[in-house]
Design goal:
Rossmann fold, 2 domains, 7-stranded mixed beta sheet, 4-stranded antiparallel beta sheet, globular, binds alpha-D-glucopyranose, binds magnesium ion
Length: 252
Amino acid sequence: MSLLTPLALLVTDLDNTLVGDDSSLEQLNQILDRYRRNLGTKIVYATGRSRTSYQELATTKQLLTPDALIAAVGTEIYLGSATPDPEWVNKLSVNWHREKIAAIASQFADLEPQPQSEQRPFKVSYYLSASVVSAVVPRLQELISDRGLDVEIIYSGNKDLDILPRGGDKGTAVQFLRDRWQIDPSQTVVCGDSGNDISLFKYGMERGIIVGNAQSELRLWDELHPADYHYLAIADCAEGILEGLKYFRFVE
Ligand code: GLC
Ligand code: MG
């Protein structure tokens, strides 16, 4: 029987990854809480939500207080304070011109702006119907590049389109935190279910868990980029995370 690997860092998306089934969430919380106390495991939430929207979720669901919150699809990192990490803000500020991007996007009738609460300093967000994505996104990308701007366009859950500074995604935010905390990718687990989680899986050799209820865009990406350090769970949400933690021998 092989020994357990110490879990140094667990990064998880919230909606439909950690959150979605209350009883398995409770079970996973107990394990993570114990690991944090005994091993010093760090817990990070990486969500598309704004910090305010995360706080709303935290009033309705049993969530452990994270060691860091990566919010707004990676563009904001909160390390126990109410203001985003200034070093991360500085990185994202280079060649980012929010108004220019919003003006270009406003030329597309199919892009419906999301509510003001989800428009963030480094994230411009819309709703877009899946039937027109392949027509709209390449043209949008081209117009933005023509202006000399470098952005990432991320489509999630067949409805949400986010425009972020290049390198402002969840995955790059995790690399930033790993560097700061000096944590090895082999002792890091990342978990997700949708398009805005793809970046969690694509930069390093973190152990990746894709929950059983994952959206088609993440499943497709996984099929095109097979890696033995990624695991597609059978179970949904927190139960899928637990299944993956056992598969990678972080949990008995
Ligand atoms: C969350 C955010 C939304 C974003 C979506 C996908 O739902 O609230 O603004 O578009 O995640 O990233
Ligand atoms: Mg999700």
